[in-house]
Amino acid sequence: MLRILVVLLVAGNLLLLGLHVSNASPVDPLADAPAWHMPAGAQRLQLASELPPPQPQPALRRQCFSAGPFETVPALVAAREALPAGVLALTARESEALVELGYWVSLPAATDFAAAHAVMQEVDRAGLHDVAVVGDRSGAFRVSLGYFLEEANARQRRDTARALGFAAETELQRETQPRYWLDYAYAMGMRSGALQPGERAISCAG
User: Fold this and answer.
1) pTM (2 decimals)?
2) 53-63 per-position pLDDT tens digit
3) Interior CA angle at 132 toward 127 and 137, to 5°?
4) Which CATH homologous superfamily contains domain 99-176?
5) Which residue from 97, 106, 82 is spatially nearest to 162, judged by alpha carbons?
6) Bridge pairing between strands 62-70 and 87-106
7) What are the extents of the domains in the chain?
């Protein structure tokens, strides 16, 4: 009986102690710490959200140029490598050009190769040499009297053949060929000196 009373007494004391601890106010470990003050002249750190938005940078003023046309890709590459340092942007582009190749003097198309060959022999006997049978763009056979870069020379050959009784014709030969260009830009003031041959200033679009 005495043992039971002792156990009850101890349990009651523990219960009272628990109630006391649960009702006690929490202790602030920094409550008694001395106040901290920022040193004079020091700047307070700002959070990223507190900083003002960055101001947009002004657009870089440019000078723009174009060089060309170049007849081949190697010529384009050589021109690109020869550009002075400091290029901001560089673009290569391709276009088409209708090129005059020269003047062809020939006789009207024959019915077939044998007929054209017979006419060629007749022309040769008449004193017009350096002639040949060739196929034209339509596939017909013609007697070619020559190919000339200068129109005056072509007319002279034509007139000589006509004087011998042959209905010679002169036709300007044209061909579409690719041409290549370089478009590039420098910062304003970075490019000085006169424009190079084939180079011109252009508007800076965009």
Assistant:
1) 0.53
2) 766 655 567 88
3) 135
4) Sporulation related repeat (3.30.70.1070)
5) 106
6) unpaired
7) 62-96+177-202, 99-176
